[in-house]
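# step 3/5: fold
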Amino acid sequence: MRSMLALILCGILVLGLAGCRRANPGDGTPRPTAREEGVRRPAVAGDFYPEDPAELAGLVDSFLQDRKPTPGRPIALIVPHAGYPYSGRVAAAAYAELRGQQYDAVILIGPNHYLEDFFGVAVYAQGSFETPLGPVPVDAELAGAILKDEPGFEDDLTLHAREHSLEVQLPFLQRVLPGTPIVPILIGQPTPENLQALTKTLTRVLAGRNVLLIASSDLSHYPVYEDAVQVDRSVLSAIETLDVATFLDTLNREMAQGIPNLLTPCCGEGAIVVVMEVARALGADRVSLLEYANSGDVPAGERDRVVGYGAMKFWASRASP
């Protein structure tokens, strides 16, 4: 793959952590979670999204209200992972596409923000993820098949304890695909070796299965509003080509421009690379931009230091809507 500069910038270092949290409501460290028999407790409830179940359900439903799916059954989505007041409406544009659909499982892929000594790929292999809306079961059979195909992946459940990039997706899934099991996957560091291994394994294991892929990622971090819009539109257009080389070249080109305060054009680059490749292998030949905004678009947002958010859908034009 091309230069890993953008990957490293939004990896597991302190700056990368700030890049996905600074524009979120609340700035406290996520609470460590207890683990009992594979139950992963919420780490960022009350911070990234409401802790009260009724308030949370009402907020998610308000984001989804009046949104209708566009033509084309989703094979994969790209969804942001910031605090709901900032990126919730953009996330809802992606999750509204799942209304009326059924999947046997959802594969969630996100970047690691908190663990400096985690460099591999972690698959949560059993139990459930809990949110204020209740537990979301993990598809142990599918997770086991992934781990069997690539024994080098880690199945240490504690690696997921603090990470928000996957947790914030769950309340939306609980409202649009209730009861659907998940397989949470974290990329510790998005090296070419990790991304290639995960892409090859998912391509093999998911063939013939009725699954949905979700890449969790925000876009540009910390430029001024106008620069963020330019960078984000460029990155989103590159994703629409369905060509990973074009996507990576675009990230490198944007970083090379020397845009003031641009930490990274895309914090979940690794997750997007994997989802682009696997979605293509599963038949996707179209990518639709569903909605774009940044943190400067909300009433409380500042425009001199913003984070971008995009919702995208991968689908097959030859398949039935």
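# step 4/5: annotate
The chain has one domain: 5-29+47-315.
# step 5/5: archive (pending)
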